[in-house]
Design a protein that fits this description.
The chain is about 10% helix and about 45% strand. It is mainly β and about 160 residues long.
Length: about 160
């Protein structure tokens, strides 16, 4: 999947709300209709999560270095930067907040693909709901907050220059 460089450079985050192709389910108004394989994986992950566990991640599809994975957030993580990876995600369930852009003054390198901090200064705050599509360019600080029980994303990290 190649995202044109001009699109990545438009803004710290592109957020497209309420994608029409992702209809909400009739039984859960905070969920996006996903295929049976995705729903089965999500339900299995939720059943396996421990009560105190705040985050779960599991790959659905691998294509070389590209991975599409389900991310379940029950507690906010730390603000993060992926220096050489853009992050593309679709909100499948729940609600949350995205803070992106600005600066992360207290950076701590965890590995080559992840830098974390305790806060983001001067970022932009956006509400997240099922069907929203998120694109965070490589090198941009971002943080996900959770409103309610959980925020479920289908996420893909894209190497810089892909």
């Amino acid at each position: 999947m190649k995202i044109p460089a001009p699109l990545l450079a438009l803004a710290p985050v592109c957020l497209i709300a309420a994608v029409p192709a992702l209809a909400q389910t009739a039984t859960d108004p905070t969920a996006v209709a996903a295929g049976p394989a995705v729903q089965a994986q999500l339900r299995a992950m939720l059943a396996e999560m421990k009560p105190e566990q705040g985050f779960a991640w599991k790959p659905l599809v691998r294509d070389g270095i590209n991975i599409a994975a389900i991310e379940i957030w029950k507690k906010p993580g730390k603000p993060a930067v992926h220096p050489d990876q853009a992050e593309y995600a679709i909100v499948l369930e729940g609600a949350g907040t995205l803070i992106s852009g600005g600066t992360m003054p207290d950076r701590e390198v965890r590995n080559a693909t992840l830098v974390e901090g305790s806060r983001i200064d001067g970022g932009t705050t956006r509400a997240l709901a099922p069907g929203d599509v998120i694109l965070v360019p490589a090198g941009v600080p971002h943080w996900f907050g959770i409103n309610g029980e959980r925020l479920v994303l289908l996420g893909i990290k894209l190497p810089k220059g892909s």
